[in-house]
Structures are given as structure tokens and as C-alpha cells.
Amino acid sequence: MRLELRGITKRFGTFTANDGIDMVVEPGEIHAILGENGAGKSTLMNTLYGLYEPDAGQIVIDGEPVVFSGPGDAMRAGIGMVHQHFMLVPVFTVAENVVLGQEPVGKGLIDLRRARQIVRETSEMLGFAIDPDAKIEDLPVGVQQRVEIVKALSRNAKLLILDEPTAVLTPQETDELIEIMRRLAAAGTSILFITHKLREIRAVSDSITIIRLGKVVGSATPSATESELASLMVGRSVSLGVAKEPAQPREDVLEVRNLVVRDTHGVPVVNDVSFTVASGEILAVAGVQGNGQTELTEAILGIQKPASGSVVLRGESLEGKGVRERLDSGLAYVPEDRSTDGVVGEFSIVENLVLDRIGAAPVSRGGALDMRFLRRNADELVKEFDVRTTSVDRAVGTLSGGNQQKVVLARELSRPLSLLVASQPTRGVDVGSIEFLHDRIVSERDKGAAVVIVSTELDEVLALGDRIAVMCGGELVGIVPGGESRDVLGLMMTGIGPEEARQRAAEHHTLLGEADLEAEAEAGAVLDAPAADAVDAPATESSTTRSATTTSAGEENR
């Protein structure tokens, strides 16, 4: 399928989300759309998918203009879409979700045998192994995404829209998705890949369109450097690293002693974990998602009740204290899922900025909310944390992901704190917001707070961590200095202790030699080439050639 967008414009009241967007996607091409959260990427895709009607412009498929009155029209035209937040019914099976809305019928009843066959045939074509009778709620996120892809392709999609597809995936699942995209493109499926992750976009795309503030500001090829793409995306030079001085740790603030947390079946998901975090340092917790990190942070906050062990904050045990008491003790918490646990989408920015302080002065006085304080507080924090919004009365759920995360961080850092626990602090956040959020986290460390960061992004772990703890299978494999190598951390993520991991990594490099290492890097990573002509856009900084980093032991550089 050849897709052409001509002057697509979409307005919401006085706000223009898409402004005269032109773009062409060739058959079998992986065409990436790069832009910050809130740049208009999802609006454009929802318009293409028939969820919105454009106010101006044309959608042209294989040379013929088309008009979609809904997603059904788009699907019939050969367009499928995998949304950032999956459109699956959790209590339904895979087969039931795949045929939902287009159920095969036999003798007046839904033909579940045919539905299962559709799943198997499409899965086999893609090289998947998906149980048609498995319930969605029992499947990992990566498999749920595969179900969405099967659902789209079983309806004969010739163009597949993937909207922020890696926002909720582990590094391993991201690798698998990239391979799936390559196979689909090789078979002739056109793919629109919506993202703000620079490494991924350079690893898989054939061409790149950059959108900023609702407008196309340039195009690029994958050989463009990350700094070029980042500056196009945000409209200014962006630091892709974290500028921070060496830590100056002082007294211990957090002490976790022999902590054990069990799941509903009695299985330990955090198993005898002990560590300390001092004032003025960042402990970054690394590991593949699902190895006990979530339960660990929730036990520190008081959401999960440990089976044994203790959590001590500034010398005082938190046993028996609820979440509110722990927050009042100086603990700040940024949850991994902001939309579920961090904000109330229907509430305004004003309300979300005081969610954990309602009932206490100065938020409330005499049993009533002090609206004058609430508005002044919101105005100050929105400015300080650069929350992009037209009004503090706007519902938080209407903000981009990066701006929602800024609201969460602004709320948590707006009171005196001793300990900041931030889980996946930049998940689904664009590069411009990541720079800001990282700077604020380091700033809290420098003010004397103890900081615990949990992240599946190894780049983030290495950038922020003064020390790095690695978890595997619910256990603490070891704690190493922040400057530890990627190879060692990758091996530790498989459960190998620090000393053995260092020894294996050294042996690996010795055996391979320099020539083999270069060949391995070419096979496993994207090599940057000089990109003087890579970017077709207003003038940016000159291109530079950069070397790629190798990956090891199931760890990768996204």
C-alpha cells in the first residue's frame, strides 16, 4: 500500500493539533514519525485511522483519495493500528479479542473454532506462538502487543500503525518487536512507527518524518546522528547525557533489611533483599521487568505488606505505618504506571498537584480546601516544572505523557523529603522531558535526599546511578559502582554475581579480540555514518560519526 497525506489539519477548538501535514509512505517501508509527546503524532494517526475527521486535507491510498467515517472504514481500506494503550478486553481470550467486531458465525452462533484457527494461521505466518484460548489478563505485555498485531493483520491490514509500541515493553520485548517489524516490511506490509526513542528509530526505520508542535519540521534517514534528530524534535540543542558531579553520600537514610514479599500464591517475589541508601546518593536498581522491582518499591511505600524483613527510614522502622504516614515521614514516590497510580486523569492539574496533601494545611483550612492556595501552588509548580498546558484547570488525562510525568514529579517534590523512590521515571517520555526529569532527580540528590531509581532502561541506570543494584528472580544479585560496564551489568541481569560477571566479561573480550568485537558491533547495533546529507530540514548542528556499543547476555542498548 502507498499512503499519501496531503495537508492534513486537525483542530480542537482554537488549538491546532495537526497543521497542514504532508507525508508519503511507500509499500513495504518502515516510516518513522518522530516527535515529542504532545507534538501531534497520535492525533495524526487517529485521524488516519478514522477516529478523528480531518478539518482540512486529504488521505490518498494507492492514488485514490479516501474519506473515513470511522475505524471500520480504515480497516476495510487495509489500515490496522496498534494503540499505545492496548484495545483488548482483559477477561476475553486471545481468539475472542482477535475476532471482536468481526466474529465468524456458524448456525447463528460465534464460531470459536474458526476464531482459534484465525489466530493460529496469522500467528504462524508471523512466527509467533500464541495460545488462542489464553486470557488477555494472564499474558505479559509483550504478548498482548503481539495479539494486537495478529488482530490487525487477520483483518488484511496492508499498512500497520504502531503508536509508541515500545513504551511499555522490556528491552528484550523491544528487540523482538523490531524483528517482527522487519519481517512484516519484508513481506510487503507498510509500517508507520510512532516513537520518540532515538536509538530504536535509527535501528529499524527506512525513513523518518519529524513533527514539532503539530507541523512537519524535517525529514531524515537513519544515518542521522541522535543529536541531530533530538534537536529537530525539540527545536533546540539537547544534552543526551546527564551532567552531574560525583556523589557526596552522607548518613544512611534508607535501610532495607532481609525484605521478603510474597505474591497471592505465596511465592517470594522479593527474596531476602537488603541494602542501604545514603543522603546525597542515587541507587539505581537495574533488571528486566518482572524481577521483583515493582514489589520492592511498593513495599517501601507501604502498598505491599512484607512477609518478613523491615524498611527503616532515618533510623525509624516503617512497620505498621500506612502510605500516608510514610509520605508524611519524608518519602516521595513516583510510580511506574502514572496513568493508573500517579494521577487521576479526570481531575484537574490543580487537584492532582495536591492529591497526597488533601486534609492538611495549607491545602485545607477549617475542613475546606483553600482554593486560593491550590491555584497559586499550581501556577508556581506548572512554571517551575515546565508543564505544557493551556490552563491549570485542564484535566491531567488530556496532557501528553511527559507533561503528566512532570505533574507527578512536581507534586512529589513540592514538600520536604528525605527519600525519593522513582520507578521507571521516564517511561513513555520524550527526550526533551527526559533531560528535564533527570536534571530534577539529580538536583534532589544534590540537596541531600536519598534517591532510589528503578529502571529497565540501561542507559538511564548508567546515567543516573552512583551505585547500581541488579535484581534477578526477586533477589539482589549485587551492588556495583555506577561506572560498571554494560557487559558486566548484562551478565548480572541473568543472575550471575558481580565477580563472576567481571571475569566472564574479561574472558569474552580477550577471546573475541578487537576485530571480532567490531564485527559483532556491526551485526548487533546500528553504526552511525557521517550524515552531512542525512537530514532534510532547517539547518542543525553538523553531523558526527559515532561508534555503536555492543550488547551482551540478553541486554541491549535501548
Automatic annotation (TrEMBL):
The keyword tRNA processing does not apply. CDD domains: ABC_Carb_Monos_I, ABC_Carb_Monos_II. Its main location: membrane. It is a peripheral membrane protein. It comes from the Bacteria. GO terms for cellular component: plasma membrane. Residues 3-238, 254-498 form the ABC transporter domain. One of its GO terms (molecular function) is ATP binding. Keywords: ATP-binding, Cell membrane, Membrane, Nucleotide-binding, Repeat, Translocase, Transport. It is found in: Cell membrane. PROSITE patterns: ABC_TRANSPORTER_1 (PS00211), ABC_TRANSPORTER_2 (PS50893). Residues 522-558 are annotated as: Disordered. This is ABC transporter ATP-binding protein.
